[in-house]
Automatic annotation (TrEMBL), chain A:
It is a peripheral membrane protein. The active site is at residue 341. One of its GO terms (molecular function) is electron transfer activity. Gene3D superfamilies: FAD/NAD(P)-binding domain, Fumarate reductase/succinate dehydrogenase flavoprotein-like, C-terminal domain, Succinate dehydrogenase/fumarate reductase flavoprotein, catalytic domain. This is succinate dehydrogenase. Residues 47-452 form the FAD-dependent oxidoreductase 2 FAD-binding domain. Belongs to the FAD-dependent oxidoreductase 2 family. FRD/SDH subfamily. Keywords: Cell membrane, Electron transport, FAD, Flavoprotein, Membrane, Oxidoreductase, Transport. It comes from Nocardiopsis algeriensis. It is found in: Cell membrane. Residues 513-647 form the Fumarate reductase/succinate dehydrogenase flavoprotein-like C-terminal domain. It catalyses: a quinone + succinate = fumarate + a quinol.
TrEMBL record, chain B:
The keyword Iron-sulfur applies. This is Succinate dehydrogenase iron-sulfur subunit. Residues 1-102 form the 2Fe-2S ferredoxin-type domain. It is an enzyme of class 1 (oxidoreductase). It comes from Nocardiopsis algeriensis. Its EC number is 1.3.5.1. It catalyses: a quinone + succinate = fumarate + a quinol. Keywords: 2Fe-2S, 3Fe-4S, 4Fe-4S, Iron, Iron-sulfur, Metal-binding, Oxidoreductase, Tricarboxylic acid cycle. Signal peptide: none annotated. Belongs to the succinate dehydrogenase/fumarate reductase iron-sulfur protein family. Binds 1 [3Fe-4S] cluster. Pfam families: Fer2_3, Fer4_10.
Length: 648, 248, 210
């Protein structure tokens, strides 16, 4: 069986919006060529914003300030709870406040290289340019970044880069940035430019005459299925890491909005690019509902090791030095414990696969601070990592000052997402996608402290400058709920809900979700093979069929029904999972977060095939019973030379 | 371990509600409290009984979505969020009573889920700095003394979970309001709107039917983020200053 | 409430100082009581200061009570559904008893005025001498008067313990890092006032003053 049994190759796709010319002038050029909307006309134009995390709240607030009519939706009870809030480390910006040789160009270069040459140069350069403005904006809003005694902003080096360009607010940078955006959003709600709908979930996109014109949303409190129209729709609904069931995502994070848009024609790009974060707290039992990330900064002082012997169950403190394998220091002597996330994660998987993993499940490696405590003293370690140690102790019940921590990789971020052009517009006119929900800036691997940067760049600065160009043609023809497309979309939603509630099978939604997660983690996780992926596709199809036969959802639609919400999301994950496996199967190379066992160097490192795979894989939905269609967008590198990464 | 749960069940906002008792066996002490509720819900679903609705999202103690009163204490016996509470804080054979936040301003939606929209409206009333996108000067234009920045940060760590209201004998949201007033009031960027902000936010707080503060201190004692009680005094100071100036 | 409370606390301290004069003998005590009537004389009419003080105190009490009623109604409305289980985490006994302690104190104040000021209630006999009213009222056979007095004084102490802390916080004086000191100060004042008020009647009851 060849992998083309799973998909059809369609026409290539191209980003028509990025201007030509010197890379540092492209964003200016685009802002100049994009049409403007007269302030007086803006109030006649409406925008729907789905998702109110960093990208969504920032964009909604900014568009509201500009005078557009914005309607926002989020599934949480308040926009301030979006999962952007959980980002710990920091946000990059090419301010060069340290005078250590940083520049917009260097941030651009690091990001393209870190993305393993699978992102667009134009987009990444703009991201680096915009990073500078983000910090200014956030400080003006009152985000309490860490400061030095002189009153100026502090920076740290993060994610293995050689410059200190990361701004942070203790270990809660995401929280503080989100609250800044949230407050700006609430200000616009009070001003009447933004209407907020909390506890609402988008369940369908309405496309009229080829343009995105609205959404169907469910009021999660009353169950009412509502139809909303606008001149443009923006999805800022985050990533889809929860397809793995266990991830560092919030429990409610889901793919439904983007997946429903995909089914309506939006291309889904690089779905298999998943970031697996190396320093998470291991799974403790089958009741486990989510995984908790420990900041990557722990790797600065902690040493990672496993016993040399298989199945060594001794207390780690009893294992003598010469029976320990500090495998990262051994394999990557120059970077040691600080190798990038994808490499550290895979190395942990390898030693556990060899039977040398630690902890009750055998899926864990030690992160040991004994040397650091001896070198720096317990006080210094406490000052630097105290809150992380406390968190670890709260969750595991073990004291990391005495016993080495146990860590294991976990799904953390998804680089893939809906395909967008330079304007952040999908291939459906009027449908824009921002933040983690799009695929644009991180390529095959995301560097630390750049997710927050991208979310806010898209939200505050990119989208508000590009969406005008589309809205300049509006307001579009008025439509109401009786429009056939709106009626059809609503009908799709209600019939799906009715179906879910009528099955009354024998298995809970979570049991399906867990099983899907196990399949994805096993075959589409840190290491992927043709055989495994093929098997996974078969398993997912069977599971999906069983789901639609045997799922048990109690209650009705006319109430707060959390099982029903979950069921809809899991149904979409069951479709997405298959596409991820097909994408992973077709990409017969290793790049960034995607490691194909068949494509490695002699010493087991990832091997890219730039001649064959230097493209974005943008997938078109082929129909429930047909194969997806692959559209390739060629990636060209004019500024950064494509090189194999090496951390030895 | 085996436990008995007494859980508040309420079908909807208009239902009277009642306590229901469930027994759970083989609960692992490594489970989080919410994972224990997950296990209960799986069991209830298979038995054909409606699962217990509760709010939760990040499950790492930062989003502020979760929160129930456990044996009379907001977020339970440890000073953390409900999602970070683990079953090792309980003993085999315990009976655990689980109730929703109770305050008129937080009406129950279903079971343990309450509507905390009042918090958003307090923020809307003035919990922000007006800095439209694009208007910002360079981030280093205004240095902020480290002590002020740190205090602003401490206040800004509020996760808006509502435990302060739940624990307050008066169901007051003064700690929540004070945390925001202190966060923004400590920063130079927050000064132009400082006098008006506190008046507008306190007015909104009162309009939402929260009770008033009598400085008892339950709020700060249960706050999972350790927002200090003296922020309320800072709010009062700002409020008196504003009223003296005739603001509001 | 904080401001009226503060006025009343200052008054209590002055009142306590006066009470302790009982140990200086009848002459000193009665003289002190009389001097209050002449305070500010002839600038103010005879008993002028006293009446100003009485009006201020009465207004303070009424405003204090009015504020309590408003506050109590609001706070009562703020939680209509009660918890099945409640647990005190931080709440002190003094803050817990503010409301009922306050009612006790109010009742006591009425009795106290009728007893020792207007002398309408006169256990042990009426007298024009404040000293004698004191001594008569707290004789051992009127142990229930002393007991009521003592219970009220304890209530005042508890009320002050939370009240002083609360008033300072309400007036914005509780700054970061000062909480411990403030609490200690409130406890100290409350103790001094309670003990200061308890000593004279006990001294009478146990015959140290006669």
């Amino acid at each position: 069986m060849s992998d083309t049994d799973y998909f059809i190759v369609g026409d290539p796709v191209r980003d028509e919006k990025a201007p030509e010319g010197p890379i540092n002038e492209r964003w200016d050029k685009r802002r100049f060529s994009a049409r403007l909307v007269n302030p007086a006309n803006r109030r006649k134009l409406s925008v729907i914003m789905v998702g109110t995390g960093l990208a969504g709240a920032a964009a909604a607030a900014t568009l509201g300030e500009a005078g557009y009519n914005v309607t926002t939706f989020c599934y949480q009870d308040s926009p301030r709870r979006a999962h952007s809030i959980a980002a710990q480390g920091g946000i990059n910006a090419a301010k060069n406040y340290r005078n250590d040789g940083d520049s917009i160009y260097r941030l651009f270069y690091d990001t393209v290289k870190g993305g393993d040459f699978r992102s667009r140069e134009s987009n990444v350069y703009r991201l680096a340019q915009t990073s500078v403005e983000i910090i200014d904006q956030c400080v003006a809003q009152g985000v309490p970044f860490a400061r030095e005694y002189g009153g100026l902003l502090d920076n740290r080096s993060f994610g293995g880069v050689q410059v200190s360009r990361t701004f942070y607010a203790r270990g809660q940078t995401g929280q503080q940035l989100l609250i800044g955006a949230y407050q700006a959003l609430e200000r616009q709600i009070a001003a009447g430019t933004v209407e907020m709908n909390t506890r609402h979930e988008m369940l369908e996109l309405i496309v009229v005459d080829g343009k995105a014109r609205g959404i169907i949303a469910r009021d999660m409190v009353t169950g009412e299925i509502e139809t909303h129209f606008a001149d443009a729709v923006v999805l800022a609904t985050g990533g889809y890491g929860n397809v793995f069931f266990l991830s560092t995502n919030a429990m409610g994070s889901n793919v439904t909005a983007t997946w429903r848009a995909h089914r309506k024609g939006a291309l889904f790009a690089n779905p298999c690019y998943t970031q697996i974060h190396p320093t998470c707290i291991p799974v403790s039992g089958d009741y486990q509902s989510k995984l908790t990330l420990m900041s990557e900064s722990l790797r600065n002082d902690g040493r990672i090791w496993v016993p040399k012997k298989q199945g060594d169950t001794r207390d780690p403190r009893q294992i003598p030095e010469d029976e320990r394998d500090y495998y990262l220091e051994r394999i990557y002597p120059s970077f040691g414990n600080l190798v990038p996330r994808d490499i550290a994660s895979r190395a942990a998987k390898n030693v556990c696969d060899e039977g040398r993993g630690v902890g009750p499940s055998g899926l864990g490696v030690y992160l040991d601070f004994a040397d650091a405590i001896q070198r720096m003293g317990i006080k210094a370690v406490e000052a630097k990592y105290g809150n992380l140690f406390d968190m670890y102790q709260r969750i595991t019940g073990e004291n990391p000052y005495e016993v080495p921590m146990r860590i294991y990789p976990a799904v953390h971020y998804t680089m893939g997402g809906l395909w967008v052009d330079y304007d952040l517009q999908s291939n459906i006119p009027g449908l824009f996608v921002t933040g983690e929900a799009n695929f644009s800036d991180h390529g095959a691997n995301r560097l630390g402290a750049s997710a927050l940067m991208q979310g806010l760049a898209d939200g505050y600065f990119v989208l508000p400058n590009t969406i005008n160009d589309y809205l300049a043609d509006g307001p579009f023809e008025k439509i109401d709920e009786s429009h056939p497309e709106a009626v059809a979309a609503k009908e799709q939603v209600t019939s799906r809900i009715d179906k879910l509630l009528s099955l009354q099978g024998s298995r809970t939604v979570d049991s399906f979700h867990k099983e899907l997660g196990q399949i994805m983690w096993e075959y589409c996780g840190m290491e992927r093979t043709e055989e495994g992926l093929t098997k996974a596709i078969g398993l997912i199809r069977e599971l999906r069929a069983e789901f639609w036969r045997d799922v048990k959802v109690l209650g009705t639609n006319d109430e707060l029904n959390q099982a029903l919400e979950k069921a809809g999301r899991v149904a979409d994950f069951l479709e997405l999972g298959e596409l991820m496996c097909i994408d992973a199967l077709h990409r017969r190379e290793s790049c960034g977060g995607h490691f194909r066992a068949e494509s490695q160097t002699e010493d087991g490192e990832a091997l890219r095939h730039d001649d064959e795979f230097a493209y974005v894989a943008a997938w078109e939905f082929g129909g429930d019973d047909s194969k997806p269609v692959l559209h390739k967008e060629n990636l060209e590198y004019e500024y950064v030379e494509m090189k194999q990464r090496s951390y030895k | 371990m085996n436990i008995t749960l007494r859980v508040w069940r309420q079908k909807g906002p208009d239902d009277k509600g009642r306590m229901a008792t469930y027994k759970l066996t083989d609960v692992s002490s490594d489970m989080s409290f919410l994972e224990m509720l997950d296990v209960l819900n799986e069991k209830l679903t298979l038995e054909g009984e409606d699962p217990v609705a509760f709010d939760h999202d990040c499950r790492e103690g930062i989003c502020g979505a979760c929160g129930v009163v456990i044996d009379g204490e907001a977020h339970g016996p440890e000073m953390t969020t409900t999602c970070q509470l683990h079953m090792r804080s309980f003993n085999d054979g315990d009976t655990i009573t689980v109730e929703p936040w109770r305050a008129k301003a937080f009406p129950v939606i279903k079971d343990l889920v309450v509507d905390r929209g009042a918090f958003d409206r307090i923020i809307q009333a003035g919990g922000y700095i007006s800095a439209p996108t694009g208007t910002a000067p360079d981030a280093h234009a205004t240095p902020v003394p480290k002590a002020d920045a740190d205090r602003a940060f401490d206040a800004a760590t509020c996760i808006s979970c509502g435990a302060c209201v739940a624990a307050c004998p008066n169901a007051s949201a003064m700690l929540f309001t004070a945390a925001k007033v202190t966060h923004l009031g400590m920063l130079p960027q927050g000064q132009p709107e400082r006098a008006a902000r506190v008046v507008k936010m306190v007015n909104q707080h009162d309009e939402e039917d929260f009770g008033n503060c009598t400085n008892i201190g339950e709020c700060a004692a249960v706050c999972p983020k350790g927002i200090p009680l003296d922020t309320i005094s800072q709010l009062n100071r700002d409020l008196l200053g504003s009223l003296a100036k005739g603001v509001g | 409430m904080a401001i009226t409370g503060a006025i009343l606390v200052l008054y209590l301290i002055a009142h306590m100082y006066g009470n302790l004069k009982i140990f200086s003998g009848q002459e000193a005590f009665d003289g002190y009581a009389h001097s209050l009537r002449e305070l500010g004389y002839p600038l103010l009419p005879y008993e002028g200061f006293l009446w100003i003080a009485r009006i201020v105190l009465l207004a303070s009490i009424l405003i204090h009570i009015y504020a309590v009623v408003v506050l109590w109604r609001r706070n009562h409305r703020a939680r209509t559904a009660r918890y099945q289980v409640t647990k005190r985490v931080q709440r002190s006994y003094s803050s817990y008893t503010m409301r009922y302690g306050g009612i006790l104190i109010a009742l006591f104040v009425v009795f106290h005025i009728l007893h020792l000021t207007t002398n309408n209630i006169a256990p042990g006999g009426r007298s024009d001498s404040p000293y004698e009213r004191m001594v008569n009222g707290f004789q051992p056979e009127f142990w229930f008067v002393t007991l009521f007095y003592l219970a009220s004084v304890v209530a005042v102490g508890l009320h002050l313990r939370h009240g002083i802390w609360s008033a300072v916080t309400t007036l914005g004086g509780n700054k970061a890092g000062r909480q411990g000191k403030l609490n200690a100060l409130a406890t100290a004042i409350a103790l001094i006032v309670a003990v200061g008020f308890a000593i004279p009647p006990l001294a009478v009851t146990f015959g140290l003053v006669s």
